[in-house]
Amino acid sequence: MKTTTKRIACTLLMLSSMAVTAGTSHAKNNPFLKFDVHSNQYSNAVMEFEHSGGKYKWKQKTISLKVTISGDAGRHRKWLPTLDLKPISMTPGTKMVGKIPSKKRKFKYSDTIRFKTSFLKSFAPSYAEYCNRTGGSKTHVKDGLFFKVRASAANSKGKVLKHIEQVPVRVVCKAKPSNPQRTPAKFKATKVKLYTIPAKPVCGKPIKLITEIWTTKPGKVDFFLTRNDGAKQKASVKTQKTANGYVKRWGKTYEFNKSVNRRYQIVLAKQAMTSGWAEIKLNCGAGADVIHPKAMSK
Question: Is 0.85 topped by the overall pTM?
Fold first, then answer.
């Protein structure tokens, strides 16, 4: 009985040893790629966000981190020299390309990698949103956050090996300004009016064709005074501050001694904006059509 028990135990031990040997042999022949970022590098992996224009924006600085890269191309295989790093994010980003020891089956080395702003920008929107939720009158620092990077390289057989690594990052939401500055208004016209004085022109009497141009701040506005028959005149005004905003008036004076039916319109030169049509319609007796245009500014 003891002899039989010893034989069974010996057989199990042999089978166990064979399994371990087979497993070890398989592991040695299993190709892999590993991209390992050294932990506890929050002091280096920092993404800062400042509050501007009512929301948080990334300051766009690079991040340098220590990494260890290792790999086994597999039995009778060697590595191709290119290592691709790609951000894993909902927002597209630019991949980075590096080098690994080629013409070797196995390698392992450490280095410092500088992650470019074009690579990191794909992670910025989610962290900016975090700052929009948590930012306030004091600077807020958050550790324990990560972004994901996928490393990939190919062996001489063309098989692509990949590894996904979580990279530690410290997000800094700078304090909101106590007296936030308003975003300067972009210069543009906001309203254009065109009308006649008097509102009902009279034959043989001066008729003033007046335009008023309103803008967001002081500045020059180029425009055309156009007529319904295609004639036009180029002019400009410089708006000034008044009690009601930034505005400038410009005009011409006409005098007609015979019947006329014309329509005028102001068309801005650098902005898609026009005035309404202003009509000069007169029924006069016989006589010459006398026009006395005079530039007028008030």
Answer: no
